[in-house]
Amino acid sequence: MVSPDEFDHANRRAQSRREAGPTAVAARYDQRIHRVRVVLNNGLEIAFKPRDVQGLETATLDDLSIIEISPSGLGLHFPKRDADLYLPALLEGLLGSGPWMAARLGAHGGMKRSPAKAAASRKNGQRGGRPRKSVA
To answer: Is 117 strand, coil or helix?
Structure first.
C-alpha cells in the first residue's frame, strides 16, 4: 500500500516532470504517412512508425484507431494493444526497453553485408563450413 507521503511525493515529481518538458495534447494514427502523430503543448508535432516501437510492431489499422493520452500528458496508451508509451522517452528516441532495442539493433546489424563478412564466410566454407551441433 502507498502511504500518503509517498503519494504526495509522486504527485510532486509528476508535476515537476510536466513543467520540465512538453506534454501531449493530441495523438492519432495518420494513414496517409503510416505514422502515429503526436501534437505537443508547445506547438511541435512528432511522428513515428508503429513498427519501430515495442508493443506496436505488428499493430493493425484497427489497433491504432484509438490512442489515449494520460491525464499528465506524458503517456500514450493504445487500448487495443494494451501498449503504453512514455512521451519523454519517445522524445529521447527510446522506442522500447533496453533488451528489446538491443535485439532490434543486433538483428539489423546481422543483416549487414560487407566485403570482410563475405570473405570470412568463404574462408569458413573452405574449411567445411560451420560445425554441426552435437546432440548431448
So the answer is: helix
Q: Residue 118: its pLDDT value, please?
A: 78
| DSSP state at residue 73 | S
Question: What is the distance of C-alpha 85 from the center of its chain?
Answer: 7
The rounded mean pLDDT for the chain is: 86
* Residues 6 or more apart whose Cβ sits within 8 Å of residue 4: none
Q: Which grid cell sits at 116?
A: 570482410
The CA distances from residue 66 to 40, 44, 53, 77, in Å, are 18, 21, 16, 9
Q: Which residues pair with residue 38 across a beta bridge? A: 27, 46
Question: Which strands, in side-by-side order, build the sheet including 68-69?
Answer: 68-69, 75-78, 83-86
Residue 129 is given by DSSP the state S
Q: Taking residues 52-69, what's their average pLDDT? A: 95
C-alpha cell at 54: 515495442
